[in-house]
């Protein structure tokens, strides 16, 4: 009795399992658009475009676009001009004039600072008088030499005196030039480190200048 009931139960179970599996597979195909329904025309199911018995292919595409990338790098440091120099006097003296403003742009040769030159001007005035006397003596010796009234040595000494005074005057002119501190090139001035009336030496930095565009 038991054996006659077991076989029909096994057969019914296998049949139900087969029906469930077929139904599940069909549902998956319909969800993926792979199986056409009776009302769907051939070739229009899920974009398959008439492919017999196959699912619609799935494509994954990435659209490449160009865009600018901004990268900023921060680093500690300092900026220096292509040409930069400290301005110092070549001789010692008292400042009688300051002719620049801090941060201003100046051209090459612009007068920036003037030192006291009263003593040099007095020396030059004295040399000019000495030169006139020496030139007159040289002329007199030249006239005496022409009539054998003096020796060649006396005339040479008079000529040498004139040359020496002229050399001293050239040196005086150079020293007068050193009382004027001028811009060595066109550029922008820095901070002023001196004041009117201050006594400066060649070791003191008056200001600095850097080459730049006005």
In words, what does this structure look like?
The termini are far apart. The chain has helices at residues 2-31, 118-146, 152-178; strands at 84-88, 93-98, 105-106, 111-115, 180-182, 187-189, 199-200, 205-210. Among the domains are: 84-116 and 180-214, Beta Barrel (OB fold (Dihydrolipoamide Acetyltransferase, E2P)), CATH 2.40.50; 117-178, Helix hairpin bin (Helix Hairpins, Orthogonal Bundle). It is an alpha+beta fold and 214 residues long. The chain has a 4-stranded antiparallel β-sheet, with no helix packed on it. Strands 5-4-2-7 form a 4-stranded antiparallel β-sheet. α2 (118-146) runs antiparallel to α3. Helix content is 40%, strand content 15%. It is built from 3 helices and 8 strands.
What is the CATH architecture assignment of the domain at 84-116 and 180-214?
Beta Barrel
C-alpha Rg, in Å?
A: 54 Å
> In CATH terms, what is the fold-level topology of the domain at 84-116 and 180-214?
OB fold (Dihydrolipoamide Acetyltransferase, E2P)
List the total number of helices: 3
Number of E-state strands: 8
Distance between the termini: 119 Å
**Oligomeric form of this entry?**
single chain
pLDDT < 50 stretches? 34-50
Task: Give the full name of the CATH homologous superfamily of the domain at 84-116 and 180-214.
Answer: RNA polymerase II/Efflux pump adaptor protein, barrel-sandwich hybrid domain
Class by SSE composition: alpha+beta
Taking strands numbered 1, 2, ... along the chain, how are they ordered across the largest sheet? 1-8-6-3
Overall mean pLDDT: 80
CATH class of the domain at 84-116 and 180-214: Mainly Beta
SSE string, helix = H, strand = E?
A: HEEEEHHEEEE
* Shape verdict: rod-shaped
């Amino acid at each position: 009795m038991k054996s006659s009931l077991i076989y029909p139960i096994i057969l019914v179970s296998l049949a139900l399992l087969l029906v469930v599996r077929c139904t599940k597979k069909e549902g998956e195909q319909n969800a993926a658009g792979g199986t056409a329904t009776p009302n769907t025309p051939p070739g229009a199911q899920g974009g398959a475009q008439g492919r017999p018995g196959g699912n619609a292919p799935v494509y994954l595409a990435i659209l490449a676009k160009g865009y600018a990338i901004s990268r900023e790098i921060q680093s500690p440091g300092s900026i220096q001009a292509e040409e930069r120099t400290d301005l110092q006097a070549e001789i010692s003296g008292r400042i009688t004039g300051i002719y620049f403003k801090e941060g201003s742009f100046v051209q090459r040769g612009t007068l920036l600072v003037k030192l006291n030159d009263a003593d040099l001007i007095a020396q030059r005035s004295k040399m000019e008088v000495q030169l006139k006397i020496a030139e007159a003596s040289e002329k007199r010796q030249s006239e005496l030499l022409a009539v054998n009234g003096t020796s060649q040595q006396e005339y040479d000494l008079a000529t040498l005196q004139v040359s020496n005074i002229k050399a001293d005057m050239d040196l005086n002119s150079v020293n007068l030039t050193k009382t004027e501190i001028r811009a060595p090139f066109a550029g922008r001035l820095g901070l002023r480190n001196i004041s009117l009336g201050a006594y400066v030496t060649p070791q003191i930095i008056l200001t600095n200048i850097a080459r730049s565009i006005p």
